[in-house]
């Protein structure tokens, strides 16, 4: 993975703790710049175990060309806790969806 590109990790209410925190911490340990992105940049998001995280940026503030990889952690099933994955990916660009493997991504068609 090229370290000159940032990695985006998407966060949402009910995110799966290990699928978010493990890659975030390991990548940062290796010196890879990681940006936490979500729909509302000022909101505090709680995990399944209620660990809080505040995103670094909102989806309106980022562009796909700024990232070398995208990580989408899983989360709680159900419409109330569902990440708006399609909206996030459309904002970041279709190129990321085609070019990089996404963690636990299942697109609704």
Task: Report what the structure shows.
The structure is a single chain. The chain is α/β, with parallel strands linked by helices and 109 residues long. The protein has a 4-stranded parallel sheet with strand order 5-2-1-6, with helices on one face. The chain has a two-stranded antiparallel ribbon with strand order 3-4. Helices cover 25% and strands 19% of the residues. It has helices at residues 17-29, 85-92, 94-99, and strands at residues 6-10, 34-38, 45-46, 52-53, 57-58, 67-71. The chain has one domain (6-99): Rossmann fold, CATH 3.40.50.880. Strand 3 and strand 4 form a beta hairpin. The longest helix is centred in the N-terminal third of the chain and has 13 residues, at 17-29. The protein is globular and about 30 Å long. It contains 3 helices and 6 strands.
Please outline the helices and strands.
Elements: E1 6-10, H1 17-29, E2 34-38, E3 45-46, E4 52-53, E5 57-58, E6 67-71, H2 85-92, H3 94-99
Parallel strand pairs: 1-2, 1-6, 2-5
Antiparallel strand pairs: 3-4
